[in-house]
Predict the structure.
Amino acid sequence: MGLRQTVRDGLTRIYERRLARALVGADVPRHVGVIIDGNRRWARAIGLEDVNAGHRVGADKIVDLLRWCDEAGVEVVTLFLLSTDNLQRPEPELTPLLRIIEGVACDLAGPGRNWQLRAVGALELLPAETVAVLKEAEEDTRDRPGASVNLAVGYGGRREIADAVRSLLAEHAGRGTTLPELVEQFDVEHISEHLYTRGQPDPDLVIRTSGEQRLSGFLLWQTAHSEFYFTDVYWPDFRRVDFLRALRDYSARHRRFGG
């Protein structure tokens, strides 16, 4: 490591401590959503031929993020790992990515971890072996005392809303509710009760890495009143100081629900 890098790292640590002190007593989001983006571009940027190396480095970064969330007092974290659109990728590209995601689930469910995991997405679209790993991780972490961590795999916001409506209609059909009766009593909260994230608070803050400034279908219903933080940093390079910057930005905003 050169002298310049050593100095830079030292200054970053000083700035990081200053940010952490400034956040003491600040408003902390209960639920943070993270759109993990830039793994492939990071790999290409540093000259790696195997772009899956970017996904593997990005997977290792997830534990760091969850620890930072624990330190900050965040109660729920939703990680956007794989969209329904991503499922259309060629098999030689998709299969390694699914194996990496399975590894993430196993790691987060492993010994010494306190997080409660939940798989959110159209699991019926995923390979059976991936679903089995995600479900086992859910079951193994069900009674853990830590933060709730949603693994959004095979996830699409439009698909989630359609699934919620389908579930709502099936529930009322089972009760014998007529369509006119359902129309009469229908409310937006009825949709919320059938979302993948039912029972959890909506995201207060959504972070997206890699410089893209769009949701890409992430939690379309739940983010109606969320604050957004976009950073140019590729996910594998995302540091605690970047996370603290997002929290500082959030704490400085005056949230308005409805206008």
